[in-house]
Structures are given as structure tokens and as C-alpha cells.
Amino acid sequence: MRRAERLFQIVQLIRGRRLSTARFLAERLEVSERTVYRDVADLLAQGVPIEGEAGVGYRMRAGFDLPPLMFTTDEARALVAAVRLAQPRLDTALAAQAEGALSKILAVLPAPARAAAESLAIYAPPVGPDTATRERLQGLREAAEARRVVRLRYLDLKGRVSERRVRPLGCFYWSEVWTLAAWCEVREDFRNFRVDRIERLDRLEDSFRDEPGKTLADMFRQVEGEMTERDRSTDA
């Protein structure tokens, strides 16, 4: 990769994340962290409004933007593949938005690039969640984005029914099923729920905010810690 291309990629990566460490940038660009530090210093000298410092992380100051760029043929193909694979598995509203976004991208491509993208030989069968599950998935996604508490009537794998008041944190797709990661206010702990086993979903007026120990990042750290401890026990 030429240096000019690498500098552009650094700007794009920093723009796309809340905070990007030098290690993350180095791994993505396949260069050393020292090279990243030098490149970021050069970008700052050129007036690019990057905030942060070595050892902490970088972010882009609000309001900075780059001129619109044309997608390459391979990038257009990748977008077509991503939409085709994702659409059958997304909720109805998000699937429609994905189709609309792809249509806008294809519309501005040169004719050869558009033809190459549309003729991509990658397809996904129309197999995905049923209508009721798609509706609940959309409701959970929107509640997570709006930070709204939801009440669930849930049927577990043993046939037991319970009602839970939870803070939806994120929805995850596991090849065949969608699950909801949430902070359960009844159990005072993180819980995962299969979306297709939710019998009723009520979005409440109560909102929530991120609290230490109750965020999705905290859940990831807890799972990582449990996996590490399990690996240690296995090795012992």
C-alpha cells in the first residue's frame, strides 16, 4: 500500500470508530505501531483534526469530512454480497433500508462497475426468521437504539414461561437464530434470550442509560473472563 493510500485509510478508520488505538490501526493496515504514530503526526501537521494521543487512542473531531469518493468494482461487489446475505435475516424495516441504500450506490457507479456488481455470482436463499420473529427483532433493535426498557413474556427451552423487564443491549445472529443480549432487572445480571421464543414484547416508556457494570462492553468482558477462566481450568 502506498503511503498516501495508508494515510487515507487511517483517516477512514478513525472516522468510523469512537476511539481507535494505534494497535488496532497497525493491525488493520499491517504496519508497525511506530509507523502509525508517525503517520498520525503527519496528518496532524497537515491540519486533519485528529484528537487523542499515543497509548490512549485517536478519534476525529466532529464536523470533519472528506469529499465523496467512488467505489471500486470490488467494493461494489462486496456491498452487493453483504446485502444479499443479510437481507433474508434482517427485520423487515432494516432489510428494506439495506436494499434502498444499495440501489443508491449502484445508481452512481459507472456502467461497467454496476454490471459487474449486479452479476455477482453470490446469492442467499430466502430463508430467515418468520414474520412474528422479524417484528420482535425490529422492536428490540429499535428499543436498544432508543435506550428503552422492554417487558418480555419468554418461553425457555424447558417450556417454562416467565416475564422479564430488561434493558436491551444488542441483537446477535447465530447462523440459525437471533438472540437478544440484555441486562435483566429481575435477575440483576446479563441474560440472553432467543428472539423466536419471545411470546410477547412490550416497549415501555421507561428509558435507561449506560451504567458501569451493565453495558454491552461489560457483558463482553464478563464472557471473555469466563472463557479465560474455563481455559485455565481445562489446561490445569
Description of the structure:
A hairpin with a 3-residue loop joins strand 1 (50-53) and strand 2. Helix content is 46%, strand content 23%. Strands 6-5-4-3-7 form a five-stranded antiparallel sheet. With 236 residues, it is of the alpha+beta class. The chain contains eight helices and seven strands. The N and C termini lie far apart (44 Å). The chain has helices spanning 3-15, 22-29, 33-45, 73-86, 92-107, 111-118, 131-146, 216-235, and strands at 50-53, 57-60, 148-155, 161-174, 177-184, 189-194, 198-207.
Helix/strand/pairing category: alpha+beta
Overall mean confidence score, pLDDT: 89
Strand-residue proportion: 15-25%
Distance between the terminal alpha carbons, to the nearest Å?
44 Å
In short:
The chain is of the alpha+beta class. The protein is built from eight helices and seven strands. The radius of gyration is 22 Å and the shape is globular.
